[in-house]
Amino acid sequence: MKLENIKLEISSGATLTLYLHDIMELREKARPIVLVTPGGAYRFCSEREAEPVAIAFYNAGYHAAVLRYSCMEDARNMQPMAEALESIRILREHAEKWHILADKIAVCGFSAGGHLAASTGTMWNEPALMKRLNYEGDILKPNALILGYPVITSGEFAHRESFYHISGSPEDDETSGFYSLEKRVTGETPPTFIWHTEDDPAVTVENALLFISALRKHQVPFECHIFNKGEHGLSLCNEEVNTPNPHCAHWFGLCIEWLDSIGLGLE
After folding, report:
1. Which of 10, 64, 81, 266 could cross-link 54 (Cys pair, CB 3.0–4.6 Å)?
2. Measuring CA to CA, how many Å separate 204 from each of 5, 95, 97?
């Protein structure tokens, strides 16, 4: 494994860690990559949803990366979104050097990190972000989204703490509603894989259902798995991350199959 650690220039603290297959030791073909955005209510980045997930995708044959993004007050003004989109640009610009398939970049996020991952697919063409990052076109658009128990809505079923940290507003108002992603889905949103548990006590399943409904309305391909039992923050659902749940753990294998089915698997 080859590790790369990058400090993002647009942030005082965000970092991008890459887990790359060594091209000199293994097959010479380039590989897809999965960018992981861990959860933590935009208050912190959960390590259980960071490196263990990246290693799982690495072991499945993918390159992987983890973005540890800005949180708390530093998350205001779309800062995590800018960092995530800048990360996608870095991956594409270094695709040849790192042997990445530039048209096979998926973003995988959990909880608030699921909100951030979904933001890359719904806000990559947000005018303020385009101006800030000085880009045009779809160079920052991910090719797929993988969302685990994602925070989505600022409305009735909101995870209010996440929206407070990202927007500065404690209420369902115009400020927090700017980040309500079920309202931002368009036909340009990438194909999406979503999994959730029906009895999640922290981020209710309605978040996933609202996003699915918006995807269907705009004819965006998706796959969704709602498991019947499981606490919040399951990550890989195994002993390594201290959330053993053999049934929900099927999400990872299903996700790999889904990536293959939409043409984002290994070549």
Report:
1. 64
2. 34, 37, 41
pLDDT for the residue numbered 136: 84
CA atoms within 13 A on the CB side of 62: 26
Alpha helices in the chain (DSSP H): 51-59, 79-93, 95-98, 112-122, 127-133, 160-167, 174-177, 206-217, 250-261
Q: CA 110, CA 209: separation in Å to the nearest integer?
A: 15
- On the CB side of 202, CA atoms within 13 Å amount to 18
How far apart (Å, rounded) are the C-alpha atoms in residues 265 and 256?
7
Q: Is 127 exposed, middle or buried (0-12, 13-18, 19+ CB in 10 A)?
A: exposed
Q: How far apart are CA 239 and CA 47, in angstroms?
A: 14
Q: What are phi and psi of 41, to 5 degrees?
A: 65, 25
3-class SS of residue 200: coil
Residuewise pLDDT in 10s, the chain (267 residues): 889 999 998 988 999 999 999 866 656 789 999 999 999 999 999 999 999 999 999 999 999 999 999 999 999 999 999 999 999 999 999 999 999 999 999 999 999 999 999 999 999 999 999 999 999 889 999 999 999 999 999 999 999 999 999 999 999 999 999 999 999 999 999 999 999 999 999 999 999 999 999 999 999 999 999 999 999 999 999 999 999 999 999 999 999 999 999 999 998
Helix axes 160-167, 112-122, angle to 10 degrees: 60
CB of 87 within 8 A of CB of 8?
A: yes
Separation between Cα atoms, residue 149 and residue 151, nearest integer Å: 7
Q: What is the Cα–Cα distance from 64 to 32, expressed in whole angstroms?
A: 8
- CA distances (Å), origin 210, targets 91, 152, 187, 214: 30, 8, 16, 6
